[in-house]
Amino acid sequence: MSKKTDGLGLPYRIRWRLVWLLLHVAGPATLPDHLDPRRRMERERAARVARFQARKTAEDQAHQTA
Fold first, then answer.
1. DSSP assignment of the chain, as one string?
2. Longest dimension (CA), the chain
3. What segment(s) does the record annotate as region Disordered (predicted)?
């Protein structure tokens, strides 16, 4: 079962949450999703988790065929 935090180390998650909260409090006003820095961070984090999950799936398949 995959989680939203797969492939994300504790220091990364702490820094990410801190920056996200700071942008929420002191960041720009509401912007369209493609310009909002918080949404950009969320997209980058989701992409990072997806890459980790894809790599893990590929490794699992390689181990099963070996």
1. ---TTTT--HHHHHHHHHHHHHHHHHS-S---TTT-HHHHHHHHHHHHHHHHHHHHHHHHHHHHH-
2. 53
3. 32-66
Write out pLDDT tens, residues 6-44.
888 999 999 999 999 999 999 888 889 999 999 999 999
Instruction: Please state, in angstroms and as integers, the Cα–Cα distance from residue 52 to each residue in 9, 30, 32, following that order.
Output: 12, 31, 28
For residue 66, what pLDDT is reported? 65
CA distance 66 to 63: 5
Q: Which two tokens stand for residue 8?
A: 């994300």
